[in-house]
Amino acid sequence: MNRLRLALCGLALLTLTAGCDSDGGGTEATVRVMSQNLYLGGDLFTLLEPQCEGNAIVVCVAQLYGTIEASDPAARMAAIAAEIARVDPDLVGLQEVSTYYVQSPADNLPGGPATDATQVTYDFLDLLMDALDAEGADYRVVSVSNNSDVEFPATTNGNTFFDVRYQDADVILARGDVTTSAPTEQSFQSLLTIPVGGTNQTFVRGYQSVRATVGGFDFTFFNTHLEVGGQAEPIQVLQAGELLAPIGATTGPVVFVGDINSNGNANGTSYQTLTVPFEDAFAVGSAATCCQAADLRNAASQLQTRIDVVFYRGFDSVGEAEVVLDEPSDRVGGLWPSDHAGVWAELEAVVQ
């Protein structure tokens, strides 16, 4: 793969002997972290198009669900798991960790006593964890932030109807040998509400954090997925502002990863807000992480913006940073593993 590699050890590390600081008072710790948006498998915003208004929403939902099925979630999660196993990060922040349910016949119809669909068709977290096990990679879930949970009726023929339910989550994984504690999950107060098929839907997003220890070095790890840009950017900017309070209240070193939906290569507003308390592990203009076509079948990469990030505070330097799953050779069955590339970085610190 043609991946970005940044040798950013700098002059400060030249003063260190292997495993010791310049004063001989500590040992060097290396923390490797990763962020990956799993991609829900289709474009939810197609449901907002004019042809999906009114009664037509049930046809659009069925078409969207068909796109999700065609995205082959199991194969995609296996490809992402293989990359996680190769990179071998201490901690991983995941976004768009989706679960889909169906119910047939539908009861989520006007005037009906609707009940939640419970038949699981695709559980991205289960698929990913099973694939990690198959890779021999020892990871465990240490934090789950449950976000949006929406359900709509669907039809492919106009006569029979079934319900499709979508749950979104963000997840933090830790490698088996990494000690973690104090998991925190918090929804944002600023949320996007839009009409979908004549019904207002609020899309819940949030952030997570855990305390972690790697090589005797203690730090806090944050993961988030901010609202999209465009007309929803004001909500995204408010969510970025909300993050400053918990970040500011966190003592000691911090690593922050996630999909912030704000272009780091163009100094997007939310990117600027979040880099006030942090350093960026990637050089501006050095990488692109978003986005492939909605059906994931584009042959040439369409990545243009950098919205997937690794930020840090309280570390001495960046040893290496890399963009992954961004080359045509990474595709499985003609599909990109996600519409986002993944990012990982090694952060160097001295344990006193």
From TrEMBL:
Pfam family, one: Exo_endo_phos
Keyword Nucleotidyltransferase among UniProt keywords: no
Domain of life: Bacteria
Signal sequence range: 1-20
InterPro entries: Endo/exonu/phosph_ase_sf, Endo/exonuclease/phosphatase, TDP2-like
Single GO biological process annotation from the record: double-strand break repair
GO (cellular component) term, any one: cytoplasm
Cofactor(s), by name: Mn(2+); Mg(2+)
GO MF entry, a single one: metal ion binding
Keywords: DNA damage, DNA repair, Hydrolase, Magnesium, Metal-binding, Nuclease, Signal
Organism taxonomic ancestry: Bacteria, Pseudomonadati, Rhodothermota, Rhodothermia, Rhodothermales
Organism: Rubrivirga marina
Stretches assigned to the Endonuclease/exonuclease/phosphatase domain: 70-340
Cross-referenced PANTHER family: TRAF AND TNF RECEPTOR-ASSOCIATED PROTEIN, TYROSYL-DNA PHOSPHODIESTERASE 2
Transmembrane spans: none
Protein name per the record: Endonuclease/exonuclease/phosphatase domain-containing protein
